[in-house]
Design brief:
Order of helices and strands: HHEEEEH
Largest sheet: 4 strands, antiparallel
Distance between the termini: 36 Å
Strand order of the largest sheet: 1-2-3-4
Bound molecules: zinc ion
Shape: elongated
């Protein structure tokens, strides 16, 4: 039986073990894992809502193996690459809305 006033969230055991190990190794917080995870989920959803509001024509497709990501804009594929500590867009020179969108996206 769970803690009163709380609900449970079932996670894949292997993913949870890795998540918990990484959290313990890399996250500095006074929060418990559950409080921290809930806050991060809330922030991620807020971020996606904000991105939809600011960049309604953009859609996050996924991350790439090389540290970049793929975005779609009006059916067009836009590739963001990461090299030498810099994000680059294959459609624009310098900083652009695609790079900002990618950098702010919680799945990137
Ligand atoms: Zn761009």
């Amino acid at each position: 039986m769970g803690k009163s006033g709380y609900t449970s969230l079932s996670l894949d055991e292997k993913r949870y073990a890795k998540l918990r190990k990484d959290w313990e190794s890399h996250v500095t917080t006074e929060d418990t894992f559950t409080v921290w995870a809930t806050t991060v989920l809330e922030k991620a959803i807020e971020r996606e809502k904000e991105l939809s509001s600011r960049y309604g024509g953009l859609h996050f497709v996924g991350s790439t193996q090389d540290g970049g990501c793929i975005i779609q804009e009006k059916g067009e594929v836009i590739r963001i690459t990461y090299a030498k500590n810099t994000l680059t867009c294959d459609h624009d020179k310098g900083m652009c809305k695609h790079i900002l969108y990618a950098a702010m996206h919680p799945q990137f």
